[in-house]
């Protein structure tokens, strides 16, 4: 029986070998990646799906993150991007920093997501009148500038600077600023599970003394029962503002949505300031596609770009310009 099936399959392949060879070659060609990336309108994600915490209740409306759809360029996606007005082809250097690999960028963006979530917890707790306790802080190198003269590497955990324990990013920057340009300084770092010494020669740029690195500050918080659920392919800091808003809403037990589908984007720092993000046009288009009522957008360049796109396409969505979490809370409380 097996022999007959084998002979039959063999005969089919032999009679249609040109078709099968063409299919295999075409499939391989279509999967070959090119040094380009494609950005396209994304969608929205209900923040309640990302947060698990005590006291979370169903609201009359929803708070949503906006995101950009990003695709690696292959022949099919490139061809589609050439004819689709809202799909844009970007060069590799427009997506990655100079001297950065995709693996390094992924690490940096995941660190930024963790940092954004930690800032969201701290700001939401403080605005809700609750205490914030930072149990421990760790600093990681997330980028090395091509101009840097250093043996530091991406993923290094910074332990000491010139023999002094590193406790925070602000303290480290302050300590570095006390040295003149040209100084060679020493760090103790944890790399691949081992403590080793790394060096850097400081240089001056825009009146600042620099090592030539980006650092992510990762805090361990006494936060109670708050958990985040993000997929491994989700990263970046641009959801920080909306995460803060959702956490605050649960902590104070107030429905801020008033039955509206609210979408927003923007980073959040530990002081509650909302920062600019990339891809605002794709996020606005995604919010419109998902029939959102209101779109929070960072003040300044992001807001002006969103306003221009809204006017060009005659979108009916309400744009709200914000520069802090306090502005957003005040706006939503006034809607009642």
What percent of the residues sit in helical stretches (DSSP H or I)?
A: 25-40%
Overall structural domain count = 3
CATH topology of the largest domain: Ribosomal Protein S5, domain 2
CATH architecture of the largest domain: 2-Layer Sandwich
Low-confidence stretches: none
Instruction: Please give the alpha-carbon distance between the first and last residues.
Output: 75 Å
What average pLDDT do the residues reach?
A: 88
Strand percentage: 25-35%
The ordered string of helix (H) and strand (E) elements is HHEEEHEHHEEEEHEEEEEEHEEEHEHEH
Structural class: alpha+beta
Largest sheet: 7 strands, antiparallel
Integer-rounded radius of gyration = 25 Å
- Describe the global form: globular
Number of helices: 10
The total beta strand count reads 19
- CATH class annotation of the largest domain: Alpha Beta
